[in-house]
Amino acid sequence: MTKTQQVRLAKRPSGKIDADTWSLTTEELPAITAGQILVKIDYISLDPAMRGWLNDVRSYVPPVGIGEVMRSLDIATVVESTHPDFAVGDTVSGTFGVTEYAISDGRNVQRVDLGVAAGPTWLSTLGMPGMTAYFGLLEVGKLRAGDTVVVSAAAGAVGSVAGQIAKAKGATVIGIAGGEEKCRVLTEELGFDAAIDYRNEDVLRRLREVAPDGIDVYFDNVGGDILDAALANLRRGARVVICGAISAYNADKLPPGPSRYMSLLVFRASMTGFVVFDYADRYGEAISQMSEWLAGGRIKSMEHIVEGGIPRFAETLDMLFTGANTGKLVLAL
Ligand SMILES: NC(=O)c1ccc[n+]([C@@H]2O[C@H](COP(=O)([O-])OP(=O)(O)OC[C@H]3O[C@@H](n4cnc5c(N)ncnc54)[C@H](OP(=O)(O)O)[C@@H]3O)[C@@H](O)[C@H]2O)c1
């Protein structure tokens, strides 16, 4: 019998997640049966999507149920196995949840190679956020060399990779992020051509300065006023990639729609949403390209690792909404 501590959904939040949202529980897991694995979680991925999974609405995955262990993507070590495809000691990725240990039948569990990259990078550039950046930019954004690309939440997990892929593909890249330090990281460490500090600068005016001929691809992670500023500065034939809208995730009533959407007509532009999981059968292609770029130093993987395990889940998740993370936010157990 293995004892495990978990975070469960106690109550659906309205607006901001608060202390009543979660309960910290401990339980004994049963012994594994034939064809199962017991994994010990090493790293938990903190994702803005977690906020959406708490709402009882129709979405691309069902909401987390009241009383259920909170859903999360994890990197884990196999500690017991009766499954033919997994051996004790394997490092794996899977949706095991916010828990110390989990039992799985191996479905949707992948072995990861720590020789290629460390565990947290498999939740970051070589994991779901990296896949989102890759397919969002190249397939949905139809990036072309020479394009002017603008990325919001650019110092975050998806944004930092999207901007670097765009650079690797020969685009001019402008990042939008909160604060001077994040903007410094974008231009001095990640090779962005320019950065706009949306907390302290007028985004619309600065976009006109740094992208005087307009934007070809706007990779939107935030929605709201920043989306409007980008819409106001499109170039003919622009592609707006709706990756996310974190500025509205904690809103308790629906925010107003984009007021500049007629720019899509004027500039013959498109605005397309996507869900990364639709590209799951092509992850191998993206992982092999990104591993090559990582090894060659063309892109850097940034992870923001918080130590402290399960009891620190709630405060760590909140960092995504205050902007306290730079790069992929990961909880280490
Ligand atoms: N479509 C898909 O399949 C898919 C897959 C993965 C992620 N996503 C979306 O991609 C976006 C980025 O996710 P991520 O995992 O890479 O998170 P992240 O960017 O690492 O973290 C979230 C960042 O959002 C910024 N932010 C928070 N509140 C904001 C606000 N009100 N206005 C503007 N910026 C705000 C903060 O940075 P600042 O300090 O710069 O404000 C924060 O660091 C999210 O919208 C997420 O839902 C979509």
TrEMBL record:
Keywords: Oxidoreductase. The keyword Oxidoreductase applies. It holds the Pfam family ADH_N_2. SUPFAM superfamilies: GroES-like (SSF50129), NAD(P)-binding Rossmann-fold domains (SSF51735). Residues 15-331 form the Enoyl reductase (ER) domain. This is NADP-dependent oxidoreductase. It comes from Nocardia amamiensis.
